[in-house]
Amino acid sequence: MSVAPLTAASADTWSTTPNRMVDAAGTGFAYRRLGSGDGLPLVMLNHWGATLDNFDPRILDGLATNRTVFALDYRGVGASGGQAPLTVAEMAADMLAAVSALGLTRIDLMGFSLGGFVALDMLRQAPDLVRKVVLTGTGPAGGKGINKVGAVSTPLIIKGMLTLKDPKTYLFFTSSQTGRSAAKAFLERLKERRSDKDKPITIAAFRRQLKAIEAWGNLPAQDLAAIRQPVLVANGDQDIMVPSGNSIELAHRLPNAELVLYPDAGHGGIFQYHEAFVPKALKFLDS
After folding, report:
1. Which H or E element spans position 203?
2. What is the pLDDT confidence band of residue 215, given thresholds at 50, 70 and 90?
3. What is the pLDDT of residue 7?
4. What is the structure's pLDDT at 171?
5. Alpha-carbon torsion 279, 280, 285, 287, what sign?
6. Domain region containing 93
7. In the structure, how many helices (H) and strands (E) does the chain have?
8. Which of 74, 99, 240, 269 is 20 to 30 A from residue 170's alpha carbon, by CA?
9. Residue 261 within a domain
């Protein structure tokens, strides 16, 4: 297990900060840690099929300017041990165990896509742990279209294979010239880390995560009125994976939420608009 003290300053960037492991809930969880400062630690949770290498370096570097950022792999994903869970609730319990093992007793929390589902369930399981929440490209349990993520994504994954392009080109971004340019820039940023990379996700873990996503989409609507934390909800206005209406619904149902929808942007709206999103998120977290 490798857990560095929170007081340690770091000159690393997201592309150079080392991989670490923390033991929790009977297995090892891979994570990276970046930044220092007086801000409350920020825990980051990523999307379906993502490892540590799929976090956007510009967003991580930007958010770590005055706080310590922790980004984690789920169980069975990347270098984390064990088998990927089949429910969001299990993922949330795992992440809570990892946060505790890291010695974090009070955090801010940010989840993208599947990470947003997990963040919402962490709030349900441990309501007093989190101060503020950023939910991006995500939706509530039972949200419209979430149980169809596989059906929507599979043709575009195949299209990526046939066109020799990363499927995120089609899944995360619009087909406009602006969207295609943003996709190219984002995918180039993901290549900036040249060494000490995370392990790629396995096909088995990828499929198990999809089952968890579809199960989340089939759950009955949950009561979000009990979530009193301030929440920043952000997405593109043309998300086809977790339809943008889910972000609007989240902002409507959460008692203390702010909504940002980026124009001509899809599921990866925060990546396309990272230059606007990072200052917005920092202002929200620091206010």
Report:
1. helix 203-218
2. very high
3. 43
4. 97
5. positive
6. 19-286
7. 10, 8
8. 74
9. yes
Checking 102-106 for CB contacts under 8 A at 24+ apart, the result is 102/3, 102/22, 102/31, 102/70, 103/3, 103/6, 104/41, 104/43, 104/70, 105/129, 106/40, 106/41, 106/131
Average pLDDT, integer, range 114-119: 98
pTM of the shown model = 0.95
Report which secondary-structure segment, H or E, holds 131: strand 130-136
* Residue type, position 120, single letter: L
Using pLDDT thresholds of 50, 70 and 90, give the confidence band for residue 8.
Answer: very low
Whether 113 and 242 have beta carbons less than 8 Å apart is answered as: yes
Cα angle 266, 114, 123 (rounded to 5 degrees) comes to 120
* Within a domain: 218: yes
Q: What is the mean pLDDT of the chain?
A: 95
The two three-digit tokens of residue 281, written as one number: 């998120």
CA distance from start to end of the chain: 34
Identity of residue 62? G
What are the residues whose beta carbons fall under 8 Å from the beta carbon of 133, sequence distance 6 or more? 108, 109, 110, 111, 119, 123, 227, 229, 230, 231, 232
The structural domain count of the chain equals: 1
The count of C-alpha atoms lying within 13 angstroms of the C-alpha of 96, restricted to the half-sphere facing its C-beta, is 19
Three-state secondary-structure class, residue 111: strand
Is residue 96 included in any domain, yes or no? yes
Residue 221 within any structural domain of the chain: yes
Per DSSP, 263 falls in state T
